[in-house]
Every structure is written in C-alpha cells, then in structure tokens.
Amino acid sequence: MDVRTICLGILSRTQATGYEIKKLFDEDGYDHFVEASLGSIYPALGKLTEEGLVSMREEAQEKRPDRKVYTITPAGRRAFVASLLKPLPEDRYRSPFMFAMLFADLLPKDRVSQMLDDYIAHIDHKLAHLERVEGNAQSKGEHFATGMGRAAFTAILDFLHTHRVDIEAEDVKAAE
Amino acid sequence: MDVRTICLGILSRTQATGYEIKKLFDEDGYDHFVEASLGSIYPALGKLTEEGLVSMREEAQEKRPDRKVYTITPAGRRAFVASLLKPLPEDRYRSPFMFAMLFADLLPKDRVSQMLDDYIAHIDHKLAHLERVEGNAQSKGEHFATGMGRAAFTAILDFLHTHRVDIEAEDVKAAE
DNA sequence: GTTTGCATGTAAACGGTTACATGATTGG
DNA sequence: CCAATCATGTAACCGTTTACATGCAAAC
User: Fold this and answer.
1) Which chain B residues touch A148 with a CB distance below 8 Å?
2) In this structure, are residues A97 and B7 in contact, taking their beta carbons and an 8 Å threshold?
3) Which of residues 48-67 of B touch A (CB under 8 A)?
4) A71-118 pLDDT tens trace
5) Within 50-69 of chain B, which residues have Cβ less than 7 Å from strand D?
6) What CATH number should be reported for the domain whose range is B3-85?
7) pLDDT (average), residues A133-158
8) A102-CA/C7-C1' distance, Å
9) Are the beta carbons of A102 and B145 separated by less than 8 Å?
10) In Å, what is the separation between the CA of B134 and the C1' of C12?
11) How does pLDDT run across B77-90, given as a tens digit for each residue?
C-alpha cells in the first residue's frame, strides 16, 4: 500500500496536515501494518493536490510555518474506494529476528537470550499500545484491526514464553 | 535484513548458486520473513565475492550457462556472525488487507466478504506450506521459526473465522 | 506448442528513508 | 539548558523490483 493511498485513507476520515497524518500513523494504531515518513508524505500530498484528489487550505500562524490543511475531494473519495476494489497487494512480513533465530546455533547462548528478551519486550510494548488504542476505536474496521493484531501478538508472546527454552538450550552433541 | 546478509546466512548452511538460493527462499520456508529477487541476489553475490566473504567456482555445463557455485569463506562466516551480534533491524509488517479492513464501511458488503475469503485462503495456503516444511526442519532454529509462524497464522485464522461476521455485518443505523 | 525449469546477468524505474535546512515554543 | 513539539519542504541516497536479454530442455 503506497503512501498516496494511505494518505487518502486517513483523509477520508478527517482533514489533516502532513504532520498530523504522520502522527495518526504513529499514535492511532495504524503503524502496526502501514508506515510512512514525512519525507514521503509531503510529496504525496503535493501530488494528490495537483491531481485534484485532495484540496489544500492554508492557515496562517504566527511564528510558525503556515499549516496546510488537506481535505479529501469527492474525486479523491472515489479514487480511494476504487483502489480498495482492485486486488490488494500481498502482506509483507520481514523479520530480522526470525532470520537470526534460524542461526541461533552459530551464536553465543547469551546473545540468543538477549535477542529473545529484546523481542519479547518489543512485542509486549506493541501489544500494550494496541490495547491502549483499542478503547478509542471509532469504526468496525478499527475494532477488527486492533482485535486481529492483539490475537496475533498474544499468540506470538505465548509461543515465545513457552518455546524460548528450546532455542536457548545448549546444543547437546549426541553421545557416541 | 539485506540481501547480502541473507545470502551469507544461506551459504553458511550449504553452498549454492544464485538460482538455488532463490529457490531456498521460496521453498524452504524462509520466504515467510525474508525475501529477495534474483535481480538483487546476483549483484549481492558478485559483491560478496569481491570482498572475499564468499568464493566462487564455475561448473561448466553443456547447453546451459555455467553454474556458479558460491561457498562461504571463513571471513564470510565471521562477517555473518558479526552481523547477528549487532542490534537487529526491527520487524516490518505491511498489510494492505488490514488497511483495507479499516475502511470496510466504505466498501460494498460483498467486496469485504471477498477480501476476507481471499485473505483466509492465502493464510491457509501459507500455513499448509509451513506445516509441509516443518517436517524437514534441520536445526533448532528452523523448528522454532516454523513453530512460531504456525502459532501466529493459526491465531490469525481463528480470529478471522470467529470475527469476520463483525465486519461483514450491515451497518445498522441506530434507530431514532 | 506452450509453459515450466534451469541459469545468468544488466539497467531502468520505483518507492521510500535519511539527512539537511529552518526556526519558534513549551515543558522538564 | 536541552529535548520535544509543531511545521514544512527538498535532495541525495538506498535497496529492491521489474523488465529486458538469452536460450535450451523437459514436461504437459
């Protein structure tokens, strides 16, 4: 899902500045399955404006750059819905952690333990974040997405807690 | 995790040609959390050879291009382990499906059902693949990785089956 | 007779991140 | 005093994908 489409999606819910869109990503739970940096959001908004899919209104501010508030246009809504009617790109999951676990036997035992600790802490943190935003979910979709995220994270944590011993165990060379 | 490191990892287990490395990705369960195309593998192998991290031996073949079999060097092994001792990059999960679910209320009901059907079929397929490779897992790490993948996919499928009704339900406008 | 598998490689295009550039305000 | 927040934007860089280029053999 490209930054263009993500911006349209957010703007279909609320008008916002580029900066605010970025914040919605990070804070409102979107960041579990999409992401974008400001360096890609600003150019995307510029292009969407050119194409008439969003409109922009400048709000002057004292001692700050003008806020540029973007609003989705009817054409923008149509384009957004159209993009969701097309076949969706596949999910992509890249996990350096899982990759590293494949080679646990090459690593010192405490490095493996440390990786597990870090990863568990990280998932814990994500799960906590998810549960925090779950409360203020607005739409059916948000409930569904946070629920599914929670299901997945919980299962992963369960697995890690019960199976970390397997990978932390010393390699026992078969006695001859 | 960049293609370089992934190639080194695979070559730490077995020598292989670029073509074979690609196949190992797709067939041996690696593709659930790492991926790379031939267009990135060949240049990566060339560079690793230059740097002395892998060595290359050409095997002439009749009526086919020479096979170039790559073997990791001691320096390559050291570099690979060193890369796993450094802090790992974060996992990244990009899900156009989850993103689309956030906007289910904007879509026709049967498009949502179709997305769910497609996605469930897709996860089913991945899970079956994982269970197929789980049998011939060689190392502790492979067992761990396939086990964790299975745990996550199973939880997601469970969730989808029990909660799809929530998102497929008609939006009932509150009676006034 | 067409697709799939084997086997290599290059180059253009793409989409994105990171760093740079600027600068006042507020909270710790 | 320093870090974070607000607020925009550009440009260089990066890694990767996709398409192109080549071509035979086996399977369907």
Assistant:
1) 98, 101, 156, 159-160, 163
2) no
3) none
4) 999 999 999 999 999 999 999 999 999 999 999 999 999 999 999 999
5) 63-65
6) 1.10.10.10
7) 92
8) 28
9) yes
10) 40
11) 999 999 999 999 99
Give the residue, B56 or A175, on which the prediction is more confident: B56
Structure tokens at B117: 């059907």
Give the E-state strand segments of chain A in sequence order.
54-59, 67-72, 92-94
Note the residue count of chain A: 176
Percent of chain A predicted with pLDDT > 70: 96
pLDDT digits (tens, 9 = 90+) for A96-106: 999 999 999 99
Distance measured from the CA of protein residue A24 to the C1' of nucleotide C24, in angstroms: 24
pLDDT at A176 over 50: no
Domains of chain B, by residue range, sit at 3-85, 96-168
Angle ∠(B156,B158,B159) on CA atoms, nearest 5: 65
Measured over the CA atoms of residue B153, residue A158, residue B88 and residue B27, the dihedral's sign is negative
The whole model's pTM is what? Answer: 0.92
Residues A141, B102: C-beta atoms closer than 8 Å: yes
Question: B80 to chain A: which residues are within 8 Å by CB?
Answer: 103, 106
> Quick one: pLDDT band at residue B172, thresholds 50, 70, 90?
low
What is the residue whose two structure tokens read 């450094």?
B86
Instruction: Flag whether residue A9 sits within 8 Å of chain B, measured between CB atoms.
Output: yes
Q: Which nucleotide is nearest to A39 (CA to C1')?
A: C17
| Chain A residues 73-102 with CB within 8 Å of chain B | 77, 80-81, 84-85, 88-102
Segment B91-97 shows an average pLDDT of: 94
- Residue B75 pLDDT > 60, yes or no? yes
State both tokens at B39: 């267009």
Long-range contact list for A18-21, CB < 8 A, 24+ apart? A18/A42, A18/A45, A18/A68, A18/A70, A21/A45, A21/A70
Residue with tokens 């059907």: B117
